[in-house]
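Please fill in the sequence for the structure shown.

STRUCTURE ENCODING:
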């Protein structure tokens, strides 16, 4: 199994910053496809936020480009999401996800709550 643990969420005012962390443990060596961040706001479907692969290539949803930065610390099996210029619409539960070659192939963390007030 693979365990993902998110941390770093909290409540901030609009314009503020937070840094989320996702720490992987277990058989993470079987997960070579990189790590993604998703979020689910109140009454909304879960949506893609950002992704980083093993080589360090990144991608972002249009809604967060220029404000969020994803990075990784490979020795620590940890991925970060630096979130700047936060907006109320960024309020959501943030989840990290990875895909692996071991069942059940997709692993999610438990989520960390981000609340941005205007």
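FILLED IN BY: designer on duty
SEQUENCE:
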């Amino acid at each position: 199994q693979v365990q993902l643990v998110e941390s770093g969420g909290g409540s901030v005012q609009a314009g503020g910053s937070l840094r989320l962390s996702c720490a992987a443990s277990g058989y993470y060596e079987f997960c070579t496809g990189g790590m993604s961040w998703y979020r689910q706001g109140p009454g909304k479907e879960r949506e893609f936020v950002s992704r980083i692969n093993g080589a360090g290539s990144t991608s972002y949803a249009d809604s967060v480009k220029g404000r969020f930065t994803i990075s990784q610390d490979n020795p620590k099996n940890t991925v970060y999401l630096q979130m700047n210029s936060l907006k109320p619409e960024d309020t959501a539960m943030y989840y990290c996800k990875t895909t692996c070659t071991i069942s059940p192939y997709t692993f999610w963390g438990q989520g960390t709550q981000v609340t941005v007030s205007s």
